[in-house]
Amino acid sequence: MTPEEGVEYLIDLVGFERANAEAEVGWGIRAEPLYQAGYMLGGLQFYALRKELVDSGVMSEREFHDTILQRGRMPVEMVRLRLTGQGLARDYRTQWRFAGDPLTDLERMQ
């Protein structure tokens, strides 16, 4: 997709105003790849968290989004602990596997 196609996509399908679409596409072109990868990783984490809590019926779509927006910025795993009511011990070590078992996924790709 060319930059102009990206701008037109944001205008036609997302509803952006032209100036905002141009700014967003320009940012995407100038941003470092790891910065963009961070956004993608966060998106995948929130998608998995939504699947865990909304698709299973634990909370509604509205509750999920409102709660996340009210909590402020923090790592997605910490958001998950708060949404599920799990405590956080002083010696807590990350353990959430939002994308499945890495070894199983690796074996499946081979």
Question: What features would you describe in this structure?
Answer:
The protein is mainly alpha-helical and 110 residues long. 69% of the residues lie in helices and 0% in strands. It is built from six helices and no strands. The longest helix is centred in the middle third of the chain and has 23 residues, at 33-55.
Short synopsis of the structure:
The chain has 110 residues and is an all-alpha fold. The chain contains 6 helices and no strands. The chain is 69% helix and 0% strand.
List descriptors.
110 residues; mainly alpha; 6 helices; 0% strand
Largest sheet: none
Mean pLDDT: 85
Tell me the helix content.
55-70%
Tell me how many strands there are. 0
Q: Structural class, judged by helices and strands?
A: mainly alpha
Give a topology summary.
Elements: H1 3-14, H2 18-30, H3 33-55, H4 61-71, H5 76-84, H6 102-109
Helix pairs in contact: 1-2, 3-5
